[in-house]
Design brief:
Elements lengths: L1 E3 L5 H11 L2 E5 L3 E5 L2 H10 L5 E10 L3 H9 L12 E9 L6 H20 L4 E2 L6 E8 L2 E7 L21 H10 L7 E4 L6 H10 L21 H12 L9 E5 L2 H13 L6 E5 L13 E5 L11 H15 L3 E7 L14 E7 L2 E10 L4 H6 L1
Helix pairs in contact: 2-7, 3-4, 5-6
């Protein structure tokens, strides 16, 4: 199988897969390939935090032209995967000098499938781009064409808990990946001081408690497959839930807008995490650390045209607040405005290149020591 992910998350995803019990894990570009049985495919969809989709390749072949493609697709036993009364959709990606138009590839694939059904059954299944019974993925790399079944359906960042959003909400897979990159493991208190929809705090709680990432998701594509095994899925789900763990620290999401706080509270409730996540109204720039001991901060401050802020002043305030009010803290945030980092006034101890959508961004870490940095190393 192939798990697709975002740039920079390949190593984390590979680690997740190994921890779940995947075999022959191999890292690629924005993807990780692995082996597992049907039950593992269910488990991967349910549990992986940094995967966008899980594809199950069914066959591949080298092709030289569109006739090769048509013949190759038509010879696949589609009746093993699709009934004539079912619907299907095709997604194609192409990286080839011979083929350069993904929509054309999708169209030729569709023609080959429906022509096979017409020959065998006298009628054909219909295309449904929104709610297909079978999602088919066609990938052409140079002359190698791989046909896969998309076991996830919609992107796995649609966790199912986020019904209320604000301007520029962070993608759930991105939020989870950033948290894992930051080393968050639930071993101390956590704060998102600009929590917006509450996504970062919710994902932090699910990591801390080892709750399956997609437990609240409405459905997966494999639930419409001809070999769908509900009993097996329920056993897998039960086994995953038995591995959840207690969490003995606090997770706080804070935002200064009352309307935003209200939405975040709703999302926390949807995720069944009200016992673990506390959302409150407050302005980070007038706040201070409320607890003794280590604190893990992670947040997604505004940095683009959808949220107008005075970048120089705003990022300067972030640096001042961290330095003066949050000793003994590891603070991480993502920004797509690389110039803004100059105004923080602190030297990041780490900078990791990531992408927020198509926007190149940086995940940065600032270490706030209790007392001076020099004193820390003299102890």
């Amino acid at each position: 199988m192939v798990a697709k992910t975002l740039f920079g998350f390949e190593d984390i995803l590979a680690k997740e897969l190994r921890n779940l019990g995947a075999q022959k894990v191999e890292i690629g570009n924005r993807m990780v390939s692995f082996y597992g049985d049907t039950g593992f495919m269910y488990k991967a969809n349910l549990c992986l935090r940094t995967a966008i989709k899980i594809l199950k390749p069914i066959t591949s072949r080298r092709i030289k032209n569109e006739k090769d493609l048509y013949d190759f697709v038509q010879n696949i036993r589609w009746e093993n995967y699709l009934d004539v009364d079912d619907t299907f959709a095709i997604h194609a990606t192409v990286n080839s000098t011979v083929f350069n138009h993904s929509k054309f590839i999708a169209l030729k694939t569709k023609d080959a499938i429906v022509d096979r059904f017409r020959k065998q059954k006298g009628r054909r299944p219909n295309v449904d781009l929104t709610y297909p019974d079978l999602s088919i993925d066609v990938h052409i790399q140079r002359d190698l064409c791989t046909i896969s079944l998309d076991s996830s359906g919609g992107s796995l960042h649609h966790r199912g808990y986020r019904t209320a959003t604000n301007i520029a909400p962070i993608n759930e897979v991105l939020a989870s990946g950033l948290l894992l990159l930051s080393g968050w493991d639930g071993q101390c208190d956590f704060l998102d001081p600009m929590c917006g929809s509450g996504t970062m705090a919710i994902e932090a709680a699910m990591i801390a408690c080892n709750i399956p990432a997609n437990l609240n998701r409405k459905e997966f594509a494999f639930e419409k497959w001809l070999d769908w095994d509900l009993d097996l899925f329920e056993k897998i789900e039960e086994a995953c839930l038995s591995k959840t763990r207690d969490f003995h620290h606090s997770i706080i999401g804070m935002d200064k807008a009352p309307s935003v706080v209200k939405k975040a509270l709703k999302n926390v409730e949807n995720a069944n995490l009200t016992d673990f996540v506390n959302i409150k109204e407050g302005d980070f720039f007038t706040s201070s650390k409320e607890i003794e001991g280590p604190l893990h901060i992670a947040f997604n401050p505004p940095y683009d045209e959808r949220l107008e802020v005075d970048i120089e002043k705003f990022y300067g305030q972030i640096g001042d607040t961290l330095k003066q009010n949050y000793p003994g803290t590891n603070a991480w945030f993502i920004t797509g405005n690389l110039t803004a980092l100059k105004y923080v006034g602190l030297r990041p101890s780490r900078k990791i290149k990531v992408f927020n959508g198509k926007l190149e961004s940086r995940l940065v870490k600032y270490e706030m020591y209790a007392g001076s940095k020099k004193a820390k190393y003299q102890r």
